[in-house]
Design a protein that fits this description.
Elements: E1 3-4, H1 5-12, E2 15-17, E3 23-24, E4 26-27, E5 37-40, E6 57-61, E7 73-77, H2 80-95, E8 100-101, E9 106-107, E10 112-113, E11 118-119, E12 124-125, E13 130-131, E14 136-137, E15 142-143, E16 148-149, E17 154-155, E18 160-161, E19 166-167, E20 172-173, E21 178-181, E22 186-188, E23 194-196, E24 202-205, E25 210-211, E26 216-218, E27 224-227, E28 232-233, E29 238-239, E30 244-245, E31 250-251, E32 256-257, E33 262-263, E34 268-269, E35 274-275, E36 280-281, E37 286-287, E38 292-293, E39 302-305, E40 308-310, H3 311-321, H4 324-341
Parallel strand pairs: 4-5, 5-6, 6-7, 8-11, 9-12, 10-13, 11-14, 12-15, 13-16, 14-17, 15-18, 16-19, 17-20, 18-21, 19-24, 20-25, 21-26, 24-27, 25-28, 26-29, 27-30, 28-31, 29-32, 30-33, 31-34, 32-35, 33-36, 34-37, 35-38, 37-39
Antiparallel strand pairs: 1-3, 2-7, 22-23, 39-40
Length: about 350
């Protein structure tokens, strides 16, 4: 799909310097720009590339004034980075703007479908499912019985949403994500064998939640596993049964959260963090990558290590961790001198 500089300037409310009719059909980095591509300049470190880029259109800040001859058409805006991000969002909306129901797919007659939806081929939609307006469900997706999906949500190929789960408005569920699989509930008997504990709850995902590829969110044993409004989950995260994650918390890849743990709002959790079950993590907590959390955490704490210490204590302690062999040798030498003097 081609766009002219005039069309792009209209979307961004920018000013054109150059040819308003030049067309672009792809995006590029400024240093890798080619004819027919659109790029942007926001970081001053990349200013030199604007004089050599082959990109047809470059978005720049209004304060930018070229000091040499340039070939690219400029679109001047208040904030080049934000404007380029806005354009990426617009481009993505256009790219994903599909509608209609493809064959073959199965949709139960008892399900209710909203306006302007897209259902890709080989999708299964079970009994009594309710799907809102402008929802996009890409091919090879499974949606179980009694699921509710809100307006403007996108479910990418291969995602699985088990029965009874509730998905809010304007959510994104990426490929391979599994919502509502059974929680890890087993009980041992007198023979040392394990019997499964039925998991009869569900998963509730509120509005504006993003769920990464291959992330799994288990249904509750009773009640609900809850992901609050605005949460952003990276790829390959495991969230166990009856967990609750607070509003606007972000979690990086390969983190695992055990059952019944409650995480507050506005937290930032790094990759490969392990969190035990049945604890409470407060609001505004920051947990560094590869940390292990085995206790309740108060609001505003910053943690690192396994088991996690406060961030400041960990960094102070690390000075000693890496020098332990030298410290041990020094202590042994001192002991020998003391014992020798005795």
């Amino acid at each position: 799909m081609n766009f002219t500089a005039e069309q792009i300037a209209g979307i961004l409310e920018g000013d054109i310097v150059g040819n308003p009719n030049v067309e672009v059909s792809k995006l590029s980095k400024i240093e890798e720009g080619t004819q027919g591509s659109l790029t942007f300049l926001a970081n001053p470190k990349y200013t030199s590339f604007i004089y050599s880029t082959k990109a047809s259109i470059t978005i720049v800040n209004k304060s930018f004034e070229p000091e040499d001859r340039i070939e690219t058409t400029l679109i001047k805006v208040e904030d080049a980075y934000k404007s380029f991000s806005k354009l990426l969002e617009y481009y993505n909306q256009v790219k994903l703007n599909k509608s209609g129901i493809e064959d073959p797919s199965f949709i139960s007659k008892s399900s209710k479908l909203g306006e302007n939806i897209y259902v890709g081929a080989f999708t299964y939609i079970g009994n009594n499912v309710t799907i809102g307006d402008n929802v996009k469900i890409f091919p090879n997706t499974y949606i179980g019985d009694n699921v509710t999906i809100g307006n403007n949500t996108i479910v990418f190929s291969g995602a699985k949403i088990y029965s009874e789960c509730v998905i809010g408005n304007q959510c994104v569920i990426n490929s391979g994500a599994i919502i509502g699989a059974d929680g890890f509930g087993f009980t041992p008997n007198e023979k040392g064998e394990y019997s499964k504990v039925p998991q009869i709850g569900n998963v509730i995902i509120e509005d504006f939640v993003d769920i990464g590829a291959a992330t799994t969110i288990d249904r509750a044993t009773l009640g609900s596993t809850v992901i609050r409004k605005g949460v952003k989950l990276d790829n390959q995260i495991q969230i166990a049964h009856n967990v609750e994650i607070g509003k606007n918390t972000v979690i990086a890849a390969q983190t695992g959260i055990a059952g019944s743990t409650k995480i507050g709002k506005n937290c930032q959790i790094g990759g490969q963090v392990g969190i035990v079950g049945h604890i409470t993590i407060g609001d505004n907590v920051k947990i560094q990558a590869q940390s292990g959390i085995g206790r309740n955490v108060k609001d505003n704490e910053v943690l690192q290590g396994s088991p996690a210490l406060s961030y400041g204590d960990y960094n102070k302690s690390y000075v000693y961790f890496k020098n332990l062999p030298k410290i041990a040798k020094t202590i042994n030498d001192l002991e020998k001198k003391v014992n020798g003097n005795n």
